[in-house]
Amino acid sequence: MATSKVQHDDKILIVGAGCFGISTAYHLLKRGFTNVTVIDRSDVLPAPDAAGTDMNKIVRTSYSDDFYSRLAHDAIAAWKKVEEWGDCYQESGVLVLGSGGTSYATQSYLNDVALGSRINLLENAESIHAVFPSDVRTGAFENYHGYLNFDGGWARAADGVSRMTAAVVALGGKVVSGKPAVGLLKQGQKVTGVRCSSGEEINADLVVIAAGSWTASSFTELNIGRECLATGQDFLCIFGQSVATIQLTEEEAANYRHCPVVLDFASGFYAFPPTDKNVFKMAIDHAGYTNYLPDDTTPEKSTSTPRTILSHGSEDGLRIPRKMVKLLRHSLSLVYPDLAKKPFACTRLCWYTDSPDGDWIIGPHPSFEGLVLATAGSGHAYKFLPVLGQLVADSVEGKLAPEIARKFALGRQYAESSYSRRSGHMDLEDLSVQELCEPKDLEAESS
């Protein structure tokens, strides 16, 4: 349903202070909107269990879809503005690998070339080895090829969100923590605000839902779960991706600190250089995990709901499936065999909101006036933090180019997948508590 013309003094309520929400608030305020409030379910901001506030995130232009390549190019130009972002962005370079060759990696390379990115083509194992410091032992990389994109790296994720939140407040916006939204207020088909779990009602002229992986479970009246079941295809798939870290010594970290981000589009494995606290992080874009729970009001329905540090505590809420620990260790051994023998310090399921085609959902809800969605980050939104809100602000103002509006529209005809993160199909599994890792699973690998 088309949203009525929004005035600059209208009350705009944004649900979610993560990547989508806080960037949207920033860009609306920069355009002259004067009454912008962001609420978030977490008592602490940035929310410690939000996907976009992990310790670090890859910043890359390497996409098979040239829209994202170009937008990432713009985002990197913004990240480099030190007066706004400090040292959030670290240009370590991104090593893009494709064992055996993947169409995604090939098209990404062509898009990066078209952007004029600084690139070294790596056609064999020897050239890949040369990318790493000489004192770092790496895997064989047999049958691998790829390229090093110098115009990319990683960002300090929580720091970036904190900086943009401070900018929102400085521009006159309000950011309020500890207000979980659990439903919409409506007059007929017009959304007039949200209802919080405390019973508090917050009225607004326009509501923007940017609740990430809590979208479906917080706003069950949108019927996202039912539509998923009716079509037999995931409409908004809430799933967890396995992440693990290794605590290095200062000396160990110094050896790996000058390595690029490693991103293997064939296997889905990726790894970062150590942080300033000597923490090495890796993850694998593999089969995701859903966590279906009955809705409170209609127990016969089931919605995938995040299982995190806030809902299940600092120990139980961070565990990943045991088999993913093994897969992470194996994948790590193919890149950094010495690190693969070390104990894992911490694990985490990073909960994403995936759309069927990997494209975001940005735009007005087709059935409710006064409601805009900005969600379905599909595991690749954070790098766009400085510019992402421009798209949502364009949608709010009715300025989004028609072809972009169609690309991100709710209820669009979904292709099988645009594979915004990498090529290949990912089969989802429901999370089994009995299969979650125990401390012994994280111990150092015996020789």
UniProtKB/TrEMBL annotation:
<protein>
    <recommendedName>
        <fullName>FAD dependent oxidoreductase domain-containing protein</fullName>
    </recommendedName>
</protein>
<comment type="similarity">
    <text>Belongs to the MSOX/MTOX family.</text>
</comment>
<keyword id="KW-1133">Transmembrane helix</keyword>
<keyword id="KW-0285">Flavoprotein</keyword>
<dbReference type="Pfam" id="PF01266">
    <property type="entry name" value="DAO"/>
</dbReference>
<feature type="domain" description="FAD dependent oxidoreductase">
    <location>
        <begin position="11"/>
        <end position="394"/>
    </location>
</feature>
<keyword id="KW-0472">Membrane</keyword>
<dbReference type="GO" id="GO:0008115">
    <property type="term" value="F:sarcosine oxidase activity"/>
</dbReference>
<keyword id="KW-0560">Oxidoreductase</keyword>
<dbReference type="GO" id="GO:0004657">
    <property type="term" value="F:proline dehydrogenase activity"/>
</dbReference>
<dbReference type="InterPro" id="IPR006076">
    <property type="entry name" value="FAD-dep_OxRdtase"/>
</dbReference>
<dbReference type="GO" id="GO:0050031">
    <property type="term" value="F:L-pipecolate oxidase activity"/>
</dbReference>
<feature type="transmembrane region" description="Helical">
    <location>
        <begin position="12"/>
        <end position="29"/>
    </location>
</feature>
<dbReference type="InterPro" id="IPR036188">
    <property type="entry name" value="FAD/NAD-bd_sf"/>
</dbReference>
<keyword id="KW-0274">FAD</keyword>
<dbReference type="InterPro" id="IPR045170">
    <property type="entry name" value="MTOX"/>
</dbReference>
<keyword id="KW-0812">Transmembrane</keyword>
<dbReference type="GO" id="GO:0050660">
    <property type="term" value="F:flavin adenine dinucleotide binding"/>
</dbReference>
